[in-house]
Amino acid sequence: MSGLPGENHLGPVLDTLCPMHAVLDATGQVIHLGPTLKKLFADRNLNGARFTDLFEIRRPRVGPTMDDLRRIAHGKLHLRLRDAPCTELKGVLVPLPETGDFGVLGGAIVNLSFGISVTDAVRDFSLTSADFAPTDLTVEMLYLIEAKSAVVAASRKLNLQLQGAKIAAEEQAFTDTLTGLKNRRAMDLVLRRLILSGQNFALMNLDLDYFKAVNDNFGHAAGDHVLQHVARVMVEEIRREDTIIRTGGDEFVLVLTQKVDRHAVAEIARRLIERLEQPISFGGHECRISASVGATLSCRYSDPDLSMLHEDADCALYAAKGRGRGCFVLYHAALRSGSGQAGELPERRVDD
């Protein structure tokens, strides 16, 4: 690229007013590029390059010769770089006077702009405000885009914070603060969802035995410690798909949804009772508790009813307590008829 003849007076003017212009000679060869346009070809040798070697004219369709280019003079051009990143541009071609007043006979000047691809171009070619003409509104547009991006980013951050706060509030509303387990509100939602879906599940009620003695002998701090220990044991013993609820005081409910036949439920109850009977250390003392467990299976009911499930699980729990604590009873109809009253059932036998 030899440079623009007479550019000692014209070149600096065009470079300032139109930093993205190209001057072509009569053969279509590029003899001068504005400073910003040069940045787009920083790694390319432009000597002898023709305009159509550097740019693909997408609209209007035109041939590669200078005569072809002259035929689209003064009209809007849609172009893109032939080299990556193939930036889209717009432009206009103006033939130079045949008099040679600009030092070029039969040539042309093409002035280009990025249009809507300006933000990509700024990033791809590391452009700054100095790369645009002083009167170019692109700079103001970039500031507006940057300001809008900042506002959008701040808004997105605020929305995420609000969403996080909402999720935290919802989680808190369904969580027992002492143990981190679900609370009664969460239990109602879980059970209603399971009943509506028709999925089989087991409803297990668990009350701690001798918990009052812990509070009376060692204080409420010891009681809180025991409740937190019980929660950890339950989390360790049941499956992730199941739900543990603290309904209040020393009362818990477990909703089991995987492999809920009577043998699996009895095995879970056995493990829980066994672990909860192990001494719990607190403040140099050993706190001793146990657990009574009663359960019912949703598959027993042709049309499961939430209140009936709770009543039957409570009935089984009452029977377990009547057997001397540390026991598990699975609900069966005889519990209501009286033939399965506490004391008639061997300890820790699964009744069905």
TrEMBL record:
Q: Name one GO molecular function term.
A: guanylate cyclase activity
Keyword set, alphabetical order: cGMP biosynthesis, Nucleotide-binding, Nucleotidyltransferase, Transferase
Q: Which domain of life is it from?
A: Bacteria
Which intervals hold domain GGDEF?
199-333
Instruction: Tell me which CDD domains the record gives.
Output: GGDEF
EC numbers? 4.6.1.2
PROSITE patterns hit by this protein:
GGDEF
Q: What class of enzyme is it?
A: lyase
The record's SUPFAM superfamilies line, in alphabetical order, gives: Nucleotide cyclase
Under InterPro entries, the record lists: DGC-Regulatory_Protein, GGDEF_dom, HNOB_dom_associated, HNOB_dom_associated_sf, Nucleotide_cyclase, Rev_trsase/Diguanyl_cyclase
Q: What Pfam family is a match, any one?
A: HNOBA
> What is this protein's record name?
guanylate cyclase
